[in-house]
Design goal:
The chain folds into two domains: 68 residues, no CATH class; 307 residues, TIM Barrel (Alpha-Beta Barrel), CATH 3.20.20.140. Helix content is 34%, strand content 21%. The protein has 13 helices and 15 strands. Strands 1, 2, 3, 4, 5, 14 and 15 form a seven-stranded mixed sheet that branches. α1 runs parallel beside α7 and α12 crosses α13. The radius of gyration is 21 Å and the shape is globular. The mean pLDDT is 92.
């Protein structure tokens, strides 16, 4: 049994407790969370820390498969060039892939992450995930912009999904993005998602180029598809509407949906979301460090917050980030959006991520009976309750 106290305890989905006490079994199971009213008395066996205690973090969007591309792709090139670089380097560096994935997995665990929503295009990450201490939900991406590829792309995605499920790892087939999935492939994914009630995720409005492609059929995404990938896109006609509206026309309202990046999502898009989705099972996943790495731009976070959207956090991949740390994502948001409270950041990085992946029975909050992980964050402005660039995380349980 361990009794742990800190200057503040942020339970994940409840108001913070000053000088509270967290009681856990040695295996990390929460026994009790005591509100001392801010008045902590000395007692035997009590561990006391300066900083804040939070549950284990949930990384709602990662690409473990791309870990071997760390440092290989230039920053701030824009999505079109980034996608081209991924296509160029993905297989040429593949001999280092397994070791890189193991290192990235350890990096996430060591940074206090307990669960990951990971995007995969193959089953190469299976062994790393099977032996990991973290919980993984694998989103198997289906690609295929030309309708002629729909059958083959869907069959391969189902095969990869089955490989994960056979060893007891949760997985679901999901579309990569609106500009890389044909209507026929979208319909196949939709039918399966409805039948199995699976969680879906999709890259959404990550760049201005994506918006231009749907409005006008031109720009960097058009060039990536037609020139870099040399695809026949003669069947494509711009919709004249946002890419989000196109995506939502194929996503079942009943299924949980994680929209990732949302860098160029507007207030008009939010209104469309409200009209077409149940917001309780709709989540906006922010990956701010990756957004800065690729587009040098951040999403309109305060808009999402004002509209009371469910926000959660991801790291993207080491191809587009320096680290796979949810705390670092929180620090970046605190730096650029100082009005965001620490309570909200913890909720986004813990509870909301667990909600998005359907894991609130296991993670996300310091609730008795759960084993959510316990992190100590130091280097915090304890008077203003703000993260700083000196903030660090130590995994306690």
């Amino acid at each position: 049994m361990r009794k742990i106290s800190a200057t503040w305890i942020f339970p994940g989905n409840q108001p913070p407790l000053k000088n509270g006490i967290l009681i856990c079994e040695d295996d990390g199971t929460v026994v009790d969370l005591i509100d001392t009213g801010g008045h902590l008395r000395e007692q035997a066996g009590l561990e006391q820390y300066s900083g804040i205690l939070v549950p284990g973090f949930v990384n709602a969007h990662c690409h473990l498969e791309l870990s071997h591309l760390e440092g290989k792709i230039s920053e701030k090139t824009g999505l079109g060039e980034f996608l081209g670089a991924i296509n160029k380097f993905r297989n040429s560096e593949a001999e280092d892939q397994e070791e890189a994935m193991k290192h990235a997995n350890f990096q996430m665990w060591n940074s206090g992450i307990v669960a990951v929503g990971d995007v995969s295009n193959s089953y190469s990450s299976l062994e790393t995930k099977r032996t990991s201490k973290m919980h993984y939900h694998t989103f198997v991406e289906a690609f295929g912009f030309h309708p002629s590829r729909a059958e083959k792309a869907f069959a391969f995605a189902e095969f990869v999904e089955a490989m994960f499920r056979e060893v007891g790892l949760p997985a679901s087939v999901t579309p990569h993005s609106p500009y890389s999935v044909s209507e026929l492939l979208f319909r196949k994914i939709r039918k399966k998602a409805l039948a199995e009630n699976t969680i879906l995720t999709v890259h959404n409005q990550e760049s201005q180029a994506e918006i231009e492609f749907f409005l006008k059929g031109t720009g960097p995404v058009f060039q990536h598809l037609s020139q870099t990938l040399a695809l026949d896109i003669s069947h494509w006609e711009p919709t004249g509407k946002s890419s989000l509206e196109f995506t939502l026309s194929f996503i079942p309202r009943e299924n949980p949906l994680l929209l990732v990046h949302n860098t160029f999502t507007s207030s008009e898009d939010i209104e469309i979301l409200k009209q077409q989705r149940n917001l309780e099972n709709t989540f906006l996943v922010l990956c701010p460090n990756a957004n800065l790495y690729i587009e040098d731009r951040l999403p309109p976070v305060l808009l999402f917050q004002n509209e009371k959207m469910n926000i959660c956090l991801g790291t993207d991949s080491l191809a587009s980030n320096q680290t796979l740390s949810i705390l670092n994502e929180m620090i970046t948001l605190q730096k650029f959006f100082p009005k965001i409270s620490l309570y909200d950041l913890v909720e986004w990085g813990c509870w909301n991520g667990a909600q998005a992946l359907g894991l609130t029975d296991l993670f996300g909050s310091l609730k008795p009976g759960k084993k959510p992980g316990v992190n100590l964050i130091t280097g915090v402005d304890l008077k203003g309750l703000k993260l700083t660039e000196k903030s660090k995380v130590k995994k306690l349980m």
